[in-house]
Design goal:
Blueprint (H helix, E strand, L loop, with lengths): L4 E6 L10 H11 L1 E6 L4 H13 L4 E5 L11 H11 L4 E10 L7 H18 L3 E6 L2 H9 L8 E3 L6 H10 L2 E4 L24 E3 L25 H12 L3 H15 L10
Parallel strand pairs: 1-2, 2-3, 3-4, 4-5, 5-6, 6-7, 7-8
């Protein structure tokens, strides 16, 4: 059976896809990516993500949330919109939410308040969390610990941290999403020594397109835009690091993603 993959983090509403979004999905399907979770990172972006999921509910699910970069704009109206969106069954997770002290486009206090409210909403609804963290590990886990008894399943997407941070996240019970960061010889090679520590059932894979185009693609594409058709390349690198076959990695990461995001199961290859 041909390997089938789920891209758990694709910013498919990004304007770089506006001229060829259907072709992007067709190329990904041809490459073996059978399902996609479209990231919602703002009120408008979450609405757009849900609209895409409604147009192709077998292939797509959406997340709905406020990325820490947009926390400064997470007012009562945005929160009310998130509550409304989150009620839709095609919204498979709350997020992208978390903390990002690397850029601080929103003040840390604003980020923590927005993160706290979204964690509370996920706990109330029992929906998974789609999480972001950069240079904020201590505060990030502190917020989650406050809700540990009621916390639903949660995935830290695009993990880029240290061995100690990975162990802390795993001990806490988080799932881990790995992107093409692992293909970046400048800053991601440490992940190659860590990814084998993530047990089956807790690992998922993603492109985070249009960002994080794998730097080791050969030949290099003319465009720097990342897209889901490159997910099998990322998966191959991860499988090699874990000393698994590509088919084995595809099987367990796809099963994990389908269970986590409540995606339709079965042979969806076309």
């Amino acid at each position: 059976m041909t390997a089938a993959f789920v891209d758990i983090g694709i910013n498919l509403t990004h304007d770089s896809y506006d001229h060829d979004r259907e072709e992007v999905l067709r190329r990904a399907l041809a490459a073996g990516v059978v399902q996609f979770v479209v990231t919602g990172a703002s009120a408008d972006g979450s609405r757009a993500a849900l609209a895409l999921a409604r147009a192709a509910p077998t292939l797509l699910r959406a997340t709905a949330g406020c990325h820490p970069h947009h926390a400064f704009d997470f007012d009562e109206q945005a929160y009310a919109s998130l509550i409304e969106l989150a009620a839709d069954p095609l919204v498979a997770a709350i997020g992208e939410t978390g903390l990002d002290y690397h850029r601080n486009f929103s003040a840390p206090r604003e980020q923590r308040l927005a993160f706290e409210r979204q964690v509370q909403l996920a706990c109330r609804l029992g929906k998974p969390l789609f999480l972001h963290e950069r240079d904020a590990h201590g505060d990030f886990l502190a917020v989650l610990r406050e809700h540990r008894s009621a916390l639903p399943a949660a995935v830290l997407h695009c993990f880029t941290g240290t061995a100690a941070q990975l162990e802390a996240c795993l001990e806490f019970g988080l799932h881990i999403g790995i992107t093409g960061w692992i293909c970046d010889e400048r800053r991601g090679l440490h992940l190659r020594d860590l990814v084998h520590r993530v047990p089956q059932g807790r690992l998922m894979i993603e492109t985070d397109g249009p960002y994080l185009l794998p730097r080791d693609l050969d030949p290099k594409p003319a465009s720097r835009r990342n897209e889901p058709m490159y997910l099998p390349h990322i998966a191959r690198v991860i499988a090699d690091c874990r000393k698994e076959s590509l088919a084995e990695l595809a099987a367990h990461t796809t099963a994990t993603a389908q269970q986590f995001f409540d995606l339709p199961c079965g042979n969806l290859r076309t």
